[in-house]
C-alpha cells in the first residue's frame, strides 16, 4: 500500500500548469527515454563523431548540425550529416568506423545527474488518483539491443536501468514495433503503455495519465503524438539552439521529420508539456505524484 505524503499548499506550488489545463488527471505512469536523459550516451555520440571528423581533417560538429542528428537513430548516415561533413571516405566506411568508435566509448556511459534518485523515488511513489496505486515505470529507447547491452554494462548504469522490468523496456529493435516507426512516431510510447497494461486485473492506464521524460526534440514529438504529457530535459546546447522555438518543441510542431498525421500534434501553450534543465528539478506535486520523503 502506498503511503501518501501531504502535497504543497496552493501558495507553495507552481499553479501555472493547472491554470492552463485544470482537467488533467493524476499521473499513474512515467515512461523514460534513455540516451541523453538517463545516461550520457549522447555526449559519447558527439565525441565519437568529432573524433572521426578530426581524423579526416573535417570541422567538428556545429550546434545546428548536432541538433539535427540528436536522438535520431542512424542520423550520422543521413544526407543532412554527410552533405555537411563532406568526408573523403564512403558512408559505409564512416558507418563502420563510427560503430567501432562508439562501442568503445559506450562502455564508459554513466548516469546523468538526478537520474537514479528520480527513478528510485518514482519506484516507491504513488499516484494521486482515486486508487492511489504505485506509479508504473517503463522505458522507451531507440537504442537497439546490442548497443543497449554495451551502454548498460557498468554497474552504475546496470543498476539504473534495473528500475524497469524487462518486459517494460521497449528498445529500438523490439519485435513489438512496426518497421520504420521509430520516434517521432508515437508507436514506441504506445507499445510501452501496452506493456504497462498487460495485467487484466488492473484498471488500464490512459495515455493522458502517462508522463514522458525526453531529451530529444523528436522524442518530445513522439510523446505528444501518443497523447501523453511530456517533460523535456534538453542538453544545454540543444536548449540554446531551440530557445527561440521552444514552444514549438513542446507542442511537437518543429516538423523536423515529416510523418503526416498532423492531428496527433499538440497545441502551442496547451499545458501538456514543459521543459526543465535537469531531472533534479522534477516537481512531483505538479503531477499529483506522492513520493516518499
From TrEMBL:
Gene3D superfamilies: HAD superfamily/HAD-like, Putative phosphatase, domain 2. GO terms for molecular function: phosphatase activity. Keywords: Hydrolase. The keyword Hydrolase applies. Pfam families: HAD_2 (PF13419). The keyword Heme does not apply. It comes from the Eukaryota. NCBIfam families: HAD-SF-IA-v3 (TIGR01509). This is Haloacid dehalogenase-like hydrolase. It comes from Lasiosphaeria hispida. The lineage of its organism: Eukaryota, Fungi, Dikarya, Ascomycota, Pezizomycotina.
Amino acid at each position: 500500500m502506498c503511503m501518501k505524503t501531504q502535497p504543497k499548499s496552493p501558495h507553495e506550488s507552481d499553479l501555472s500548469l493547472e491554470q492552463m489545463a485544470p482537467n488533467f488527471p493524476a499521473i499513474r505512469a512515467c515512461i523514460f527515454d534513455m540516451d541523453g536523459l538517463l545516461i550520457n550516451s549522447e555526449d559519447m555520440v558527439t565525441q565519437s563523431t568529432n573524433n572521426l571528423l578530426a581524423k579526416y581533417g573535417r570541422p567538428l560538429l556545429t550546434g545546428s548540425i548536432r541538433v539535427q542528428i540528436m536522438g535520431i537513430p542512424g542520423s550520422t548516415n543521413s544526407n543532412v550529416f554527410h552533405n555537411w561533413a563532406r568526408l573523403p571516405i564512403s558512408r559505409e566506411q564512416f558507418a563502420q568506423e563510427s560503430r567501432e568508435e562508439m562501442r568503445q566509448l559506450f562502455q564508459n556511459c554513466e548516469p546523468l545527474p538526478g537520474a537514479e534518485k528520480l527513478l528510485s523515488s518514482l519506484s516507491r511513489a504513488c499516484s494521486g488518483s482515486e486508487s492511489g496505486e504505485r506509479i508504473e515505470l517503463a522505458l522507451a529507447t531507440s537504442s537497439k539491443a546490442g548497443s543497449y547491452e554495451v551502454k548498460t554494462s557498468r554497474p552504475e548504469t546496470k543498476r539504473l536501468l534495473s528500475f524497469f522490468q524487462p518486459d517494460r523496456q521497449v528498445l529500438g529493435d523490439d519485435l513489438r514495433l512496426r518497421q520504420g516507426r521509430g520516434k517521432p512516431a508515437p508507436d514506441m510510447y504506445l507499445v510501452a503503455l501496452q506493456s504497462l497494461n498487460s495485467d487484466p486485473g488492473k484498471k488500464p492506464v490512459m495515455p493522458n495519465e502517462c508522463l514522458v521524460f525526453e531529451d530529444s526534440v523528436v522524442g518530445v514529438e513522439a510523446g505528444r503524438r501518443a497523447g501523453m504529457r511530456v517533460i523535456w530535459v534538453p542538453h544545454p546546447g540543444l536548449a540554446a539552439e531551440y530557445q527561440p522555438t521552444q514552444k514549438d518543441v513542446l507542442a511537437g510542431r518543429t516538423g523536423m521529420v515529416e510523418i503526416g498525421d498532423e492531428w496527433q500534434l499538440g497545441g502551442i501553450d496547451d499545458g501538456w508539456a514543459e521543459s526543465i534543465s535537469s531531472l533534479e528539478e522534477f516537481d512531483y506535486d505538479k503531477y499529483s505524484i506522492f513520493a516518499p520523503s
